[in-house]
Structure formats: structure tokens, C-alpha cells
Design a protein that fits this description.
234 residues, alpha/beta, Rossmann fold, 5-stranded parallel beta sheet, 52% helix
Length: 234
């Protein structure tokens, strides 16, 4: 099954679209909350998170990803190539942090380490196949992977405010403040890691405007395009 990444801004509907696409395609779904689970498990020893009595097919998606990541980290540590970016600086916690909490100071060593860490995580998850990765810079990490479908969801700022306010049952002013904070954090995240804006067209195969197209149509179109990528992974 294909690897799909979906990126967008708060209020554009990209999160709902991503979950629906994953469900419709019958593939795994990874977002910040799933990465949080992986990060917590990576804080533990391999023996504590992997039941060695389990057969491989019985492991959950999170267990499989964590297992593979820990093995990769062990190999890198044993290779004598220096400290791995997952160790130290609390990088594993940043994997699941909101964009606004990412340290955007260019002088911090953590920025370089985090860039390496998130790229390693995304690439390892993509290697498993049959997965949709929501946000986290996955489209940027996999931008040169021709077998991954990178999708962007655009929506006008004022429209996003209305959508988000209605969804969260808050005032337009509250929605505007939350969206501005989110947008700024996400922009800094992308600029730090990829030197690009979050919806830079050079990153994506296809970009949808959720203001002009109904979500159901966008979901169907993404699924149809994703199926075209099956042959590229075979």
C-alpha cells in the first residue's frame, strides 16, 4: 500500500481529511499523538516495550515502528559515529510537541539535532509502507521520494478562522489568536528544518483548496491518486 503525507494549516480541514483518507485506504495513520506514543516508548528500554514472545504479526503499529527505530539507533550508536540526535537535549519529547513549543532559536544545537531526528523517524515510518503521515514535516522529509504521495491542503486565512471557530465553538477572535500562534510555529518549524514555507509547492505532488472543494471530493481524489503510487512501491 502507498505512503501518503498530508500537510495543511489549522482550520483547513487537513486533519479530518487525513484521518478519512487513511480509513478509506485501510492504512495506518500517524500524527502528533501517535508520535507522542512512540516517543514515550523510546524513553524505555527495548526489553520493556517489546514483548519478545510476540510473533511479528502480532505487534501493534506503534510497537513495530518503535522496535525498528530503536534497532536503528542501537546500530548508529555502536558504529562509532558519535552521539545520535535522539539522545540528549530532550529531542524525543520534541517529536510530539506542538509547533509553538519547538525551539526556534537558530543558535540552539537542538535545532540541528531535531532536524536529524525527525527525518530519521519519518523515513523509518515511511519504510514500513501502508501509512499516512499527517504534518510533522513529513512532506518535506520525503519530497525526493517519488513513491510517496505528498498532499497539501490550502485554505484562505479568514475562512479558516470561521471553520475553526465553528468546530471548536469559540469566538472568531479566539480562533484567530489560536490560528496565528499555530501558523507562526509551523512556519518557523519548516523554515528551520527545510528552509521552506509549510505549503511551498515544490514539496508537494498535489495541493487542494478546501475552501473551493468539498472535503468528500478531496478525500476521494487523494485516494485515487494514492492508488497510482502502489506500482511505484512494488
Amino acid at each position: 500500500m502507498p505512503v501518503v503525507t498530508i500537510e495543511g494549516y489549522l482550520g483547513s480541514g487537513y486533519q479530518t481529511i487525513g484521518r478519512s483518507v487513511a480509513e478509506k485506504l485501510g492504512i495506518d495513520f500517524v500524527d502528533r499523538l501517535i508520535l507522542s506514543k512512540i516517543a514515550k516508548e523510546m524513553d524505555k528500554h527495548l526489553a520493556e516495550i517489546v514483548d519478545l514472545q510476540k510473533k511479528p504479526e502480532e505487534k501493534s503499529f506503534t510497537e513495530r515502528i518503535t522496535d525498528n527505530l530503536l534497532k536503528a539507533l542501537e546500530k548508529s550508536a555502536l558504529s562509532g559515529g558519535g552521539a545520535d540526535p535522539f539522545f540528549g537535549h530532550g529531542i524525543e519529547n520534541l517529536l510530539s510537541s506542538p509547533y509553538k513549543d519547538f525551539p526556534h532559536n537558530e543558535d540552539l544545537v537542538e535545532n540541528m539535532d531535531f532536524s536529524k531526528a525527525i527525518k530519521k523517524v519519518i523515513n523509518e515510518i515511511a519504510k514500513q509502507g501502508s501509512v499516512l503521515i499527517l504534518g510533522r514535516g513529513a512532506s518535506g522529509v520525503l519530497r525526493n521520494d517519488n513513491s510517496a504521495l505528498k498532499v497539501g491542503i490550502y485554505c484562505d486565512f479568514d475562512v479558516r478562522i470561521k471553520k475553526y471557530a465553528k468546530r471548536e465553538d469559540i469566538s472568531d477572535d479566539e480562533a484567530r489568536n489560536k490560528i496565528l500562534e499555530y501558523d507562526e510555529g509551523k512556519k518557523n518549524y519548516y523554515l528551520n528544518i527545510f528552509q521552506k514555507q509549510p505549503l511551498d509547492p515544490s514539496i508537494f505532488n498535489i495541493i487542494f483548496n478546501s475552501e473551493l472543494l468539498p472535503e468528500d471530493e478531496i478525500i476521494d481524489d487523494i485516494c485515487e491518486n494514492a492508488k497510482k503510487y502502489l506500482s511505484k512501491r512494488s
